[in-house]
């Protein structure tokens, strides 16, 4: 499943945003903690299928808002 089909990203007018990509950096954008959790699971499944490895020592999480 790709991020767009999950429906957990940010909807701003007619634009859908789920991730910002730059070189070797991925910033996942979601409106809820559950959405972010699901995005991470989607990325993990994709990385296993495509033999991509994430560096857990460089991984960070920022969450704004209420639980």
List keywords for this structure.
67 residues, two-stranded antiparallel ribbon, globular
Structural commentary:
By secondary structure, the chain is α+β, with helices and mostly antiparallel strands. The protein has one domain (3-50). It has two helices and four strands. The strands form two sheets. Strands 1-2 form a two-stranded antiparallel ribbon. A two-stranded antiparallel sheet has the order 3-4. The radius of gyration is 12 Å and the shape is globular. The model has no long low-confidence stretch (mean pLDDT 84).
What's this model, at a glance?
The chain is an alpha+beta fold. It contains two helices and four strands; from the N terminus they run αββββα.
Bin the strand percentage.
15-25%
Tally of individual helices: 2
E-strand count:
4
* Portion in helices: 25-40%
| N-to-C span | 26 Å
Major β-sheet profile: 2 strands, antiparallel
Taken in chain order, the helices and strands follow as HEEEEH
**Average pLDDT reading:** 84
Low confidence ranges: none
With strands numbered from the N-terminus, the spatial order across the biggest sheet is: 1-2
Q: Which geometry do the CA atoms define? A: globular
- Number of separate domains: 1
Classification by helices and strands: alpha+beta
Radius of gyration: 12 Å
């Amino acid at each position: 499943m790709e991020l767009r089909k999950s429906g957990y990203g940010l909807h701003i007018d007619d634009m859908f945003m789920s991730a910002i990509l730059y070189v070797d950096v991925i910033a996942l954008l979601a409106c809820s903690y559950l959405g972010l959790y699901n995005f991470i699971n989607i990325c993990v499944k994709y990385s296993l299928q495509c033999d991509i490895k994430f560096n857990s020592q460089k991984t960070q999480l920022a969450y704004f808002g209420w639980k």
